[in-house]
Every structure is written in C-alpha cells, then in structure tokens.
Amino acid sequence: MKEDKIYIIGAGISGLIAALELERAGYSPVILEASDRVGGRMKTDKVDGFLMDHGFQVLNTAYPEVKKYLDLQLLKIKTFDPGAVIFDGKESYLISDPMRNPLKIVGMAFSKVGSFLDKVKMFSLTQELKKKTNEEIFNSPSVPTLQYLREYGFSQAIIENFFKPFFRGIFLEKHLNTSSRMFEFVFKMFAIGHAAIPENGMEEIPKMLRKQLSQTQLYFESRVKEIQGNSIHLENGEVIIADRIIVAVQPDQVMKQLQGQFAAPRKVINLYFSLQKSFLARPMIGLVKGEQLINNLVFMDDVSEVYAPKDRSLLSVTILDSVLEEKELVKAVQLELSEISGIKPDFFKYLKGYWIDYALPNLDDLRYQIPFTECKITDDVFLAGDYLLNGSINAAMTSGRTAAEAVIHSFMPTH
Q: Which stretch is the leader sequence (predicted)?
C-alpha cells in the first residue's frame, strides 16, 4: 500500500466513494466524520419499530453511478409504482405511468390532470430525452423549468396538477425556477428507471459503500474546525498534517476563505405520522395540489413493509417551508390530512419531525460532470460533493470519484 496520508472530511456518499476509489488505486485513506455514523444527509433512524429516513428520499434505479457502486439485489430494493395520486381538495385521482408510457394511460384521470395533447407531448418529450445522452442534457441551454414546460406547449392544467407538485418535491422549491437541465435529467431517469428505497431504509446505501472499504480508517465524532494549508484542525484541538485532503462537506464549513461563496441551501421539513392503515394502499407518492402546507406524502410501508410494525402504517409528509412552531405545524398538517382523507385529524399520531436545513445545494449552473482538474482548490486540498454538479445521489457519487482521480493524479510525477 502507498504511504501517503490522505484525509477525507465527511463520510457522506461522496466521501465514501472517494475512499473506495483511492483504495482501488492502492491508498489507505482516513475519513473524519463529525457525526456518529456514515451517510451524511442519508440517514435512517429506528424509533419504536418504525424506520424514519431523514427527509423523504428515493434512489432512482437508472442513475448511471448506481450501477457502478451498488448491488440493488443485495439492498433488497423496493420500487414505487410509476405515477402519482393527486389530491385536489376532497377529490383524488390516480395517474399511472405519466413519464414511462403516457400514451398507454387509459381512463379519465389524465383528462382531469391534463389534455390529450398533454399526453402526446409527454410521449414525445420522453422519446426525445431517451435519445439524448446525459452529457447532452447538461450541455443544453438552461432556462427555469416552468418556462421550459410552457414553451414545450404543456397546458396550464397539467403544469398545476402534475408537474408543479411532483417536481417541487424533487427540487424543494415552489416555483420551478430550477434549471431545465435538471428537469430533463430527472424526467429521463424516471422514464427509464424506478424510484426506489432499500427495504431497510435509505441509510443502507452508505452502509453498503462502507462495507466495500477495507483499507480506510473511519473516525466518528471527529468534527473538523478548520483546514489551514495541509493541516486539519479538529474541534478537540488536535492538529493533523496531511499529504492530501478531500473536503467532502460543503467547504465553507471548514475553509474560512470560502465563506460567502455559496447560496443558502434548500431546506425541507419531513414529518412522520402513524395510522392504523394506509389510505393510499399502493406504493405510490401522493401529491397535494395548490397552496397547502403538504407538498407530497407517502406511506413508506406500502413500499417496504419493514418501515412500520405489523399493526401500524408509517406516513411520511414533506413540507417545503413553514414558519410555524412544531406543535402548530403538526396540528395544521393533521387537519390537511383529514381534509384529503376523510379520517379524523387525531387519528394521525405524530411520531417525529426532521427540520433539514441542508437538504439540497442551491445551484444555478448545473453540470453532469467536471474535469478532475476543477476539484483542486490548492496543491493539497480537493473538493467533492453534489454541490459541484447537481443535487442528486448520482452527482454525489460522480464527484467523489472525480476528487479521488484528482488526488491520484496529483501524486504522479510531472515531466
């Protein structure tokens, strides 16, 4: 093994992938992680027999990086049915497969959501994007997603009924200002792959990556205060001298000179309730139309039974923003749930809430990949994280690999 001392700050997805690639090149890196476990933003808590992911997250099975690093069979992956249940006041209707095969959709539900022409446009967009490479998607002109949908000719009805609630939950912003590049990429991934979760929760993904590491040392509860040159200053006063450092957290947290360089991240609130049984009764996401607190909801045990005890159901509710205190917010959400389901508000037993201040990076210039030379910030320090590319598990993995390549390259003799 090579003796060079390479330290990785952060045991999220990009940090773990960087370690994996460094091991493959013969290095034995060290990961310093501030929390008590791997996963970064991807964590699952076990509470009273329920599994609660930190925020509603899904893995798209079509992500190119997923095929490189994860064994979906071993993860016991559970897929969502394509489509969504739309809640419009007291009315609800099902649209199945809107991106996978829009022209095959039978029944009247779609006509409430959009027109026949919308179906045709959905079909042609799917065909177009399947032909486009991911690189081409991220090299195409960028406009806000909402503008893109209008210019493509989608009706206001389908924009309000489907695109807004569906993509607000993915982009974590209300007005679909996110770049059309991200929209095209996500739309294509949903058209060819499935939204899925590991049977035992999203944290199984970083756990699987960790299991692939054999030469990496991991130190938990090791918060980095600051990086100066090639020295790492820990909160406990310890100073570590490194040959190379990969910063796999947002770098302004540990590098004073980068403070103020990043837009405020996208936040999200995720509340969990238990109910006797699911009112959706299918492994599908529920989208709430209009200006409600709830953006989307899903009964996690409809997708993977392991998420809840046998006699209860686990409801995950996503709220994009709210100034309400926890108690008030829970009450307001219980009322909204009651309105759409007809079930009494107090039947929704509140379990736990997550206020996630950093759910997604807030980016203007979205990219699919970057040359490894762009990861380098000084001769000793390299960057990894989805904020370098786009907010996705795929990007986190890509950036981890790219940072490792940059470090490996930096040790090569220059002629």
A: none
